[in-house]
Amino acid sequence: MYTPKYFAETDLLELDRLVEWNAFASLITTIDGQPCVSHIPVLYERDDKEVIFRGHWAKPNPQWQGGVDALLIIHGPNAYISPSWYPDKEEKARVPTWNYAIAHIHGQLEVQHDESDLAAIVSELTEVNETMVGSDWEFEPETREDHRRQLYGIVGFRLVAKQISMKFKLSQNHPEANIESVIELLPSSNQHHGVLIAEMMREQLDKSKF
To answer: CA 129, CA 106: separation in Å to the nearest integer?
Structure first.
C-alpha cells in the first residue's frame, strides 16, 4: 500500500478502533496465480504487538484450499474533500481528494476444521453481533443438533499478523488553516462518514501539536 510518511499510522490502538468500528473485512489470497477475495466478518485479538484474526468461509468457497499467504483489509471511514473548503485554494491551485483510514494485515492462514474451533468462531461472532444490535439470539451447538449440523458447512481460519500497515489520510500534508476548515465543513457535507472523519482529523491535528 502506497503510504507517504505523513499518512503512516503505527499505533496499534488505532487498529483496535478500526476493527471496533468495522469488523467486516476483505481477505485476499491467490489461487493458481489469480487473486481470490472473500468479504467476511472477523474476530480480533491483540496482546501487545501480537495480532490475531479469526473467521470462517462457507465450505464451497475455494479460498480455504488455496495458498496460506494472505492479506486482510480492515476498511475504516472515508469522505470526499472539496478543494472549495481550503482557504488557500486559489494561491495553491488545490484539487479534490479523499480522506480515509485503512489497515492492511499480512500473515499466513491456518485453516481450521475442528468442530470445537468452528463452534467457538460462530459462537463468538454471534455474541459480538447480537450484542451490537441489542438482541440475544444464541448459537447452541452443544444442545441443539440442528445448530451443530451447520458447522459441517463451514471452514474456519486463524490469521496471525506478520506485518501491519495502516494509512490514515487525514489532510496531514495541509497547513493548519486548511485542516481546521475541512473539520468545520465536513459534518454538514451530507456524507455518511463526514462527522467521523472530521473527528479523526481533529485527533490527528491535536496529536501533531505535542
So the answer is: 25
Report whether 189 contacts 98 (CB < 8 A).
no
d(CA 28, CA 109): 11
The DSSP annotation for 117-170 comes to: HHHHHHHHHHHHHHHHTT------TTT-HHHHHHGGGEEEEEEEEEEEEEEEES
Name every residue whose Cβ is closer than 8 Å to that of residue 77 and which is 6 or more positions away in sequence: 21, 100, 101, 193, 196, 197, 200
Contact 125, 151 (CB under 8 A): no
Residue 184's SS3 state is helix
pTM: 0.94
Which amino acid is residue 38, in one-letter code?
S
Cα 197 from Cα 48, distance rounded (Å): 26
70 close to 159: Cβ distance less than 8 angstroms: yes
Q: What is the pLDDT of residues 23-70, one digit of tens each?
A: 999 999 999 899 999 999 999 999 999 999 999 999 999 999 988 999
Map grid coordinates 480515509 to a residue: 100
- b/e code 152-178 from CB counts within 10 Å (16+ = b): eebbbbbbebeebebbbbbbbebeeeb
